[in-house]
Write a structure and sequence with these properties.
5-stranded mixed sheet, 7 helices, about 20% strand, alpha/beta, single chain
Length: about 230
């Protein structure tokens, strides 16, 4: 027993048929062989706090680390939207002032018309936030346009308490660790830094090697499955 160490999990408290059904659906999607005509793309979003310096850093001398004041200025919040194609190594991140239904709808239109204009269908994995729905498209675009965009998608939702199943959440964790682990004061600076990070990720073709399968879930998460005995 190691009470001084903690592992954090996001799982339902008891057997949950809806959870396992959605979980297995997403895991089956991740096991599909790569098909460039039907790319699997994961989407997620997160809030971000813009922070500026309350005072300038100290003058540096040879051999010194950069010294900044512990006090900072709060410059408001924004939302970061992320798309990642795990097997294709394609990445896109964008910072917006809000994360309304209209914001999501415009990001999905970008996914369909700019990122993947020529594919047969986009298999989209995301959580079931209330704005992540066709109704958001109809709130934003004319009916024929909303319908056109939605028909380009094959949508699979992660279950409630199953955000760890969304590979885009992994992508946001990498972004945070590699790019956002310091104070960024303005939306312009944030987007500039994220664009540089995105460009490098795409040039490297960084892929995600997802290992957890449906077979693993039925063994390791057996307590989540309804008892049929």
């Amino acid at each position: 027993m190691r009470p001084h160490l903690s592992d954090y999990w996001c799982l339902p408290a008891k057997a949950d048929a809806d959870f396992v059904a959605r979980m297995e659906d997403v895991l089956d999607v991740y096991e599909r062989p790569y098909d460039p005509s039907r790319p699997v793309v994961c989407m997620d979003e997160k809030p971000y706090q813009l922070l500026g310096e309350a005072r300038g850093p100290w003058a540096m001398r040879p051999g010194d680390d950069r010294k900044v004041d512990s006090e900072y200025a709060r410059n408001g919040t924004c939302s970061i939207f992320a798309f990642v194609e795990p097997l294709g190594g394609r990445h896109h991140v964008c910072a917006l002032q809000h994360r309304t239904a209209n914001d999501w709808a415009h990001q999905i239109k970008y996914l369909v018309d700019v990122m993947y204009p020529d594919v047969e269908k986009i298999t989209l994995v995301m959580d079931n936030l209330n704005t992540h729905a066709p109704s958001s498209l109809y709130k934003t675009f004319a009916p024929q346009e909303a319908n056109r965009i939605w028909k380009r998608l094959d949508v699979h939702y992660t279950p409630k308490h199953g955000s760890w199943l969304d590979i885009a959440e992994v992508e946001l964790n990498v972004l945070t660790r590699q790019c956002l682990n310091r104070r960024i004061a303005t939306m312009e600076e944030l987007q500039r830094e994220m664009s540089a990070w995105e460009r490098e990720r795409n040039e490297l073709g960084s892929k995600v090697n997802w290992q957890f399968t449906t077979a693993d879930a039925r063994t390791k998460l057996v307590s989540l499955y309804p008892d049929l005995g």
